[in-house]
């Protein structure tokens, strides 16, 4: 009895695995078609200068409007895109679209914004990210200095990132370290990279008002950024108390639901036309 039970379990396990593999294959297949089919969208989240209250830029965040799956958040497709390699095509589309949108905002007479795009570890390591950024900026007629790439801390600290970062920076495109404070990068390694900004991770900001230890982590990141001559951007700012704490610590720029959630391009236009100083800061 024990033996046949064991056998059945093995079969059930195998069938479960096969179903999982099939679902994964279908996801990859649908995702591969998403770029040529025009199913990707960008939302833009405002970044606010804490001294002036002005919106100085936006972060572009991808969404997948799938005909069969509905609206898919990055957590539902970026990890699969990374393991399957589809993320290269996604990142390239994001770069092109963000540049076209900057140009459209310029043409509409809005103040010149910067745009930050997230790039995957894979895309940074492929060797032609700088070429892609240069071509996209040129095609759209925007200066490369208005573009920024966000590289997660864990990726930036890796052995293959430095060359890619230097090439991108040499173009005049800015480089930010994303989710800083979540990895365990060696400081000397980061110090050797040509960087512009550090982004304090959402989880550190979330704990800011509540937890003294988290406060001191944010404090340390801001002090580190200032000492390296980098701008510091806080992500995920939701509460006035967090904003007050960040300002007191000398944080330069903030992003989060307190100022504005990620929204479609036309809503950014409305936000900027209504006045550049946000009530949360003014
Ligand atoms: P990230 O770059 O660290 O983006 C910040 C995330 O925090 C975004 O989630 C944003 O919507 C969310 N957020 C914004 N304000 C708040 C707030 O006040 N509170 C909280 N709790 N969260 C806030 P999202 O859009 O789901 O993106 C998740 C991640 O997916 C991004 O993290 C980024 O790593 C990745 N991602 C997004 N778009 C792209 C892309 O185009 N290419 C690549 N390679 N990765 C992307
Ligand atoms: Mg989200
Ligand atoms: Mg980011
Ligand atoms: Mg982040």
From TrEMBL:
UniProt-recorded name of the protein: Diguanylate cyclase/phosphodiesterase with PAS/PAC sensor(S)
Annotated ranges, domain EAL: 24-276
Lineage: Bacteria, Bacillati, Actinomycetota, Actinomycetes, Geodermatophilales
Source organism per UniProt: Geodermatophilus tzadiensis
């Amino acid at each position: 009895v024990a033996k046949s039970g064991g056998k059945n379990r093995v079969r059930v396990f195998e069938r479960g695995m096969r179903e999982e593999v099939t679902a994964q294959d279908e996801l990859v297949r649908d995702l591969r078609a998403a770029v040529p089919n025009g199913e990707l969208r960008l939302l833009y989240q405002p970044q606010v200068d804490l001294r002036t209250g002005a919106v100085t830029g936006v972060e572009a965040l991808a969404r997948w409007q799938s005909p069969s799956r509905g609206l898919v958040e990055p957590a539902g497709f970026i990890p699969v895109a990374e393991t399957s390699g589809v993320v290269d095509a996604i990142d390239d589309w994001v770069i092109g679209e963000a540049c076209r949108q900057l140009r459209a905002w310029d043409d509409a007479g809005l103040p010149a914004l910067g745009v930050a795009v997230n790039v995957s570890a894979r895309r940074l390591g492929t060797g032609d990210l700088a070429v892609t950024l240069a071509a996209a900026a040129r095609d759209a007629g925007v200066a490369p200095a208005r573009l920024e790439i966000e590289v997660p801390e864990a990726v930036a600290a890796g052995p293959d990132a430095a060359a890619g970062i230097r090439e991108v920076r040499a173009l005049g495109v800015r480089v930010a370290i994303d989710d800083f404070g979540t990895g365990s990068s060696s400081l000397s390694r980061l110090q050797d990279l040509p960087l512009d900004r550090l982004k304090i991770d959402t989880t550190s900001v979330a704990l800011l008002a509540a937890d003294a230890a988290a406060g001191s982590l944010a404090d340390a990141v801001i002090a580190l950024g200032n000492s390296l001559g980098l701008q510091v951007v806080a992500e995920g700012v939701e509460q006035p108390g967090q904003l007050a704490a960040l300002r007191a610590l000398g944080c330069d720029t903030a992003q989060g639901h307190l100022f504005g959630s990620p929204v479609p391009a036309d809503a950014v236009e409305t936000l900027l036309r209504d006045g550049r100083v946000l009530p949360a800061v003014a």
